[in-house]
Every structure is written in structure tokens, then in C-alpha cells.
Specification:
25% of the residues lie in helices and 13% in strands. The protein is an alpha+beta fold. The protein has 2 domains: 337 residues, no CATH class; 70 residues, no CATH class. The strands form 5 sheets. A 4-stranded antiparallel β-sheet has the order 2-3-8-9. Strands 6-12-13 form a 3-stranded antiparallel β-sheet, with no helix packed on it. The longest helix has 18 residues. It is globular. 47% of the residues are buried.
């Protein structure tokens, strides 16, 4: 839980602007421009909402609880939807000559043995963080695993069976009540989250999991000598669970909650959710059937009247992207954790088959999947490559990250990761667990190639507009 906020320097409390009456557009714009909880990004503006409209920066989330200058806030920035972005990381490197607390050998460097004595050396040592926005997670090979490590190809000359170097993106510390597991591989999930979860409340399993994550992150990423107190941990978790964040304004389409649309964080703050809601595979505890149209209704009516101006066209593009996200046919095949579990080689689905949580976009039930992001064929420069062998069959797999299998030791879990929440995407590029997609367009390209969808350039533009507006 290493994390960072640009507005800490001068104020103890951050205030949300008050709602304004219709017709006070100029006043609303001035308030928007001076609201520290509304931050710009390449696609428009992001907004964070909290009960009471204030963030108390004296919370333990912002305190340095370790020995290396980090707080939870070091890697979870307001401006990046309480996550990180490569653009912001690069700015911090240049502003501090690579000495900002995010740049630490323990996990910010490509290897903990790298030279950081000069600016040039630091630029090389932290190149993975600067390029992909990833930190290095170090884990040993699991005991009694169904597979063995045959070979390690690590460009940085460090990884071994005793300590694999796994480069992963910090996940956003907002909209957390929609989680069904904690961390990309679920390693901080104390117990499986149990349905139902009352709207607006966090299940005890989620609270316990976030508490465990805060503890381990402080001891690990922040290199604390002593664990945080129970009071500090409770304050961190309560703060994280209070945050709701979403894109608030699109630079072409304008405000995303106009015309009774449900964009922005206010509607998200009261979004109905329980574990298993709208699950497509029969895990909804209420027995309600899956409805692909229920998965995303954010921008229904964003185009409220006929028109042909730039704003109208931008809004129509977002609406079109939302419809494609729900209805574009995809033949889903070869996804471990899905096709094998269902016992079908291929089936017809949509984006919402996996991104089914209404108006949020993660899977509402714990469902780690292997869509191939960690495959050797998609290896990016700088990532180690691990050759694994099934101890029973002799089968070989080469991956840049074994994913869930590092916890379970099971062959079938190699390459599995959870799908993240999709809100606030515009502020936190790059994407996937390893930051291998620099833009949302590259995310679309990955799935188009992976499932041979046949997405046209116009469809891609609409999907990117929609994802950018989340």
C-alpha cells in the first residue's frame, strides 16, 4: 500500500464544491477549476466523492509509517484515480531526479541490487517503473507445487526460484466496496467474500482483507520496523472505503452526468452491489439471471435531444461505445478459469461476460482468469521469462508471471489474474496487470487479436470513448 497525493502540501482538508443551481454555468466552472478533488487527465476530468465532501489528510493513509519515506499515498494518487500513471511517475522522477519515495530499491527498482548512485543509473534502475508503471513483487516458488521452474531469463540478472521478480501495477485504492478479492492474484484475500453484501456497506471479509493488505504493505513496501497499530490500520481501511472515483467530465462530451446520465462518482457512490450480482454463470445468490444490458447503463440518455454539434457527436460516440461493450459478439475460447470450468471449448459472449458488475466493470464473483497477457508471445522488453514444467505430464509453459499459481501451486492457475474495476481508467494508464497496454486503444487491440473479433476502426473509437468516460 505505497501511495501519493499531489494536494497534501498546503491543506489539511480537501473540500468538494457544493452543488450549483441550473443556469449558473460560469460559477460551476469556477468552482470546478478550484475543486482539489477534480483533477485533469488526457480525456477530461476525474472526480472523487466522499461522504461529507471532505478528505482529512491527517489520516494514517497519508502518514509515513515506515523507514523509506513512503506512505500509502506514495503509489495511490488522487490524480490517477488513487492509483498510479506512467505520466505522473515520469514527472516525479524528473522533479526529484529520481529520489521521490516511489523510487526505492526494495520494489521500485528492476532489481534490489542495481546502482542508483547517479541520475543516469537511477533512470536505468527504475526503468520498468518509468515505462510500465509496475513495482517488483518478489515471491519464492510455492512449496509442493504441481510444476517446477526449469529456467529463468531475467534481463536484470536477479530472479531465481528463491525470489521470482513479478512486475505488477498498483491497483487503485478507491471504489473498493465492489471488490471480490484483494490484489491481482488475490493474495491478500483473507477469506472468500460471501454474498449478499448490503448496498453501501463493506462485507467483514473485505474489511479484514484490506486490513491485512495495509499491514503487509506497510511492513513490505514502506519497510516499517514496527507494524501499524490497530487504530492506524482501521483508519486506513475506513478512508479507502469512503472513496468513490470516476471520470466526471469528458473533454469533448462535457459533463457525464448531464441529461440524467449516470456518469461521475455521485451515482457510483449509491450503486447497488452484492457479491455475485448479475453473475453470468449462475453464482448470483438471488437466482436472478444475467442481463448484459444491466451491466452498463451509465450513458443511457446522454444524448437527450437531436443535434449535430461536436458535443452531440462526442456524446453519441460514448453511447455507441456503451452499446458495443454490452452487445458486440465475442467468441470466447481458450480462457483458463472460464472455458475449462464451463466445460465448453468456445461460447458466445460479450465484454460484459467478464466485466459484469453493473456500472463498475469487474467480475462480481471471484473469477481469476488467464486471457494470455502473461504469455511468452506477449513479453515486453524488460520482463523476466519463466519456463515452467508440469511435474506429472512434462508440459511446458513460458510466462512472464505465473499469477495465481504462485499462491496455489496448481498448474491450472498459471497466468490467472483478476479483472480490475473499470472506473477512472482515463487517469491511470497503462493497463493490464503488467502495464503492457499503454493506451485504451491498445487494450482494444489486444482483445480484438486475442479473440479474432473483427473490430472496425469506428467501433474501436467508440469503445475507447466509452472506456475513457468511465
Amino acid at each position: 500500500m505505497v501511495r501519493c497525493l499531489a494536494v497534501m502540501a498546503t491543506t489539511a482538508v480537501l473540500s468538494c464544491a457544493a452543488p450549483v443551481a441550473a443556469g449558473e454555468a460560469a460559477m460551476a466552472q469556477r468552482q470546478e477549476n478550484h475543486d482539489p478533488l477534480i483533477t485533469p487527465n488526457p480525456h477530461g476530468k476525474l472526480r472523487t466523492w466522499v461522504p461529507g465532501g471532505e478528505i482529512d489528510t491527517s489520516n494514517a493513509f497519508f502518514q509515513i509509517l515506515g523507514t523509506n519515506g513512503r506512505s500509502c499515498n506514495t503509489c495511490h494518487q488522487l490524480v490517477a484515480a488513487w492509483g498510479t500513471s506512467v505520466a505522473r511517475i515520469g514527472q516525479r522522477f524528473e522533479a526529484t531526479y529520481g529520489t521521490d519515495p516511489i523510487f526505492r530499491l526494495v520494489d521500485g527498482a528492476n532489481s534490489p541490487l542495481m546502482d542508483v548512485s547517479t541520475l543516469k543509473a537511477r533512470r536505468e534502475a527504475y526503468s520498468m517503473l518509468l515505462t510500465y508503471g509496475v513495482i517488483r513483487i518478489h515471491m519464492p516458488m510455492p512449496e509442493d507445487a504441481e510444476f517446477s521452474l526449469l529456467d529463468v531469463d531475467d534481463p536484470w540478472g536477479y530472479a531465481s526460484a528463491q525470489e521470482l521478480s513479478l512486475f505488477r501495477r498498483p491497483l487503485p485504492a478507491t471504489n473498493l466496496r465492489f471488490l471480490t478479492s484483494v490484489m491481482w492474484d488475490g493474495r491478500e484475500t483473507v477469506a472468500p467474500f460471501l454474498p449478499p453484501m448490503d448496498p453501501g456497506e463493506a462485507h467483514a471479509d473485505l474489511v479484514d482483507s484490506l486490513t491485512q493488505q495495509a499491514l503487509n504493505a506497510t511492513l513490505g513496501h514502506a519497510q516499517a520496523m514496527e507494524p501499524p497499530t490497530p487504530e492506524q490500520l482501521a483508519a486506513i481501511v475506513a478512508f479507502e472505503l469512503s472513496l468513490t472515483t470516476a471520470q466526471f467530465r469528458d473533454r469533448r462530451a462535457g459533463r457525464l452526468d448531464d441529461a440524467d446520465a449516470l456518469g461521475g462518482p455521485r451515482a457510483l457512490a449509491i450503486q447497488r452491489f452484492y457479491v455475485g450480482i448479475n453473475d453470468p454463470f449462475g453464482f448470483n445468490p438471488t437466482g436472478e439471471p444475467f442481463d448484459t444490458n444491466a451491466s452498463m447503463i451509465l450513458f443511457n440518455g446522454l444524448v437527450s435531444r437531436p443535434g449535430n454539434g461536436p458535443r452531440h457527436r462526442a456524446r453519441a460516440l460514448i453511447e455507441r461505445g456503451q452499446q458495443l461493450f454490452k452487445n458486440l459478439p465475442i467468441t470466447i475460447t481458450g480462457v483458463a478459469g472460464l472455458n475449462d470450468v464451463l466445460g465448453v471449448e468456445a461460447f458466445q459472449g460479450h465484454c460484459t461476460t467478464c466485466h459484469n458488475t453493473p456500472n463498475v466493470g469487474n467480475h462480481s464473483s471471484g473469477a481469476p482468469l488467464d486471457v494470455g497477457v502473461a504469455d511468452a508471445s506477449r513479453r515486453e522488453a524488460g520482463f523476466p521469462l519463466y519456463t515452467l514444467m508440469n511435474n506429472d505430464t512434462g508440459e511446458i509453459r513460458k510466462v512472464t508471471d505465473p499469477g495465481l499459481a504462485m499462491l496455489t501451486g496448481e498448474w491450472e492457475d498459471i497466468g490467472k489474474f483478476k479483472g480490475p474495476k473499470l472506473r477512472g481508467l482515463a487517469a491511470r494508464a497503462p493497463y493490464f496487470h503488467n502495464g503492457s497496454a499503454a493506451t485504451l486503444g491498445e487494450v482494444i487491440d489486444f482483445y480484438n487479436e486475442r479473440f479474432d473479433i473483427g473490430i472496425t476502426p469506428r467501433q474501436k473509437a467508440a469503445l475507447v470513448a466509452f472506456l475513457s468516460a468511465l
